[in-house]
Amino acid sequence: MLTAEENKKLTEVGPGTPGGELLRRYWHPVAGASELESEPVLGVRLLGEDLVLFRDLSGKLGLLEAACCHRKVSLVSGIPQEQGIRCCYHGWLYDCEGKCIEQPAEPTFSRFKDAVGQRAYVAQELGGLIWAYMGPLPAPLIPALDVLVHEDAWRDIGKAVIPCNWVQCIENSVDLTHVDYLHGLYYDYVLRRQGREPLPKSDRVFGGRKQVEIGFDKFKFGIKKRRRLEGDTENAEWQVGANPLIFPTMTRAGGRGSLQIRVPVDDVTTLTFLYSCSQPDDGLPVPPQESIPVYDVPLYDENGKWKTDWVTGQDIMAWVLQGPIMDRSTEQLGASDIGIKLIREMIFEEIDAVANGNDPYGTVRDPSENLPFLLQINESGPARRTGYMDNHWHQFSPIYGELKALMSRPSPARTAMEEEAKKKKEASYIS
Ligand code: FES
Ligand SMILES: [Fe+2]
Question: Are residues 163 and 277 in the same domain?
Fold first, then answer.
């Protein structure tokens, strides 16, 4: 339980707020690179600020405050130029650093343009996403997560705008006990109501086995989770680190080639990216991918009800049902909520670190230290890989059929793996 004041500190994202200052020390994706191919100027909202994202005619990315400093018309209707973006109203031209470089209607001798400009932020492309950084310069590096930088794979990116505060989404990533109920009992209930059979064990999270013990370990970039499952002996290895939380906004959940990124849009809105990196493990080359598709993930079914016959849809419903900003002053946390306590503790600690002038958790500045990590792109077997795709966001992807074919393409190596997989009892699945 938090006081109302603590809850505010935890959840606010705007400029000048403690939480907003922390979040401004991290990179956040704001769009897919392919979205900028079809529309070179996009309006984006991040950390409570309305911005314009564009690529000028020279190919440079720009990320500026949206409202033109002249008469406040949004640059979202601006025109990309060789250098920068021109406001549609009176033609003022801004370069990608926000400097005003032309004011066509002002006297030719005027130096007025030198005195005005747009607030500018840094934008960079990585892994098919455009990332934004809104903190003090120099910016740190975008962590080289394997799913973002691995070369021999296909990618696709789902996205959805969620009407609630970002902390609810990230707390869910360390709320391990929900998996047994929301993705087990409730999932069965939803399917039953639809007149469908319960999922077979092989398609259930953890093979339908409940977690009997959970734990968490901090590591360089966030939190690794531990769990012991029903039927495991006391001395059995814990399942460790399969889907870590990357502080503060990312989590690997939905298969090992996946990444969920929760982007704080404002205090009551979160943009979630459901990112997939599909790499067959038969060792054969992957055909080149021309463009990484970005697609919308539906929150509701055709009747306007929550679409909860898939795993992340169940999570999304739970986040939103906690309210726009969850009231943590009246909650009742139990012993099983240690993950929730840990993530909050980390957010508060890192808010203080930033207030004291330090880099927060997981900041990387030295390129030699920014090596690809979490190298666990592949699932454990071909059947499992395509099976989980049916229960996750991949089912909504415009290249779903091609991805399934890629991940299960026939090859000698795959045949051998399938033989091996048949012999092995499935023990570990990723939520
Ligand atoms: S409002 Fe943008 S140039 Fe006038
Ligand atoms: Fe979940």
Answer: yes
Task: Please tell me if the CB atom of residue 113 comes closer than 6 angstroms to any atom of ligand 1.
Answer: no
**Three-state secondary structure of 136-166:** CCCCCCCCCEHHHHCCCCEEEEEEEEECCCH
Do residues 211 and 229 touch, judged by C-beta distance below 8 A?
A: yes
Q: How far is residue 104 from each of residues 58, 91, 101, 112, 339, measured CA to CA in Å?
A: 21, 6, 10, 11, 57
Same domain membership, residue 411 and residue 348: yes
User: From the CB of 66, is ligand 1 less than 6 Å away?
Assistant: no
Same domain? 155 vs 127:
no
Task: State the residue range of the domain holding 399.
Answer: 146-423
Q: Where is pLDDT greater, at 381 or 11?
A: 11
Q: What is the pTM of this model?
A: 0.92
Residues 61, 207 within the same domain: no
pLDDT tens sequence across 210-234: 888 888 989 888 998 888 888 776 6
Question: Which residue among 64, 70, 79, 113 has the greatest number of ligand 1 atoms within 8 angstroms of its CB, and so is best to mutate?
Answer: 70
Query: Do 179 and 294 share a structural domain?
Result: yes
**Are 176 and 107 part of one and the same domain?**
no
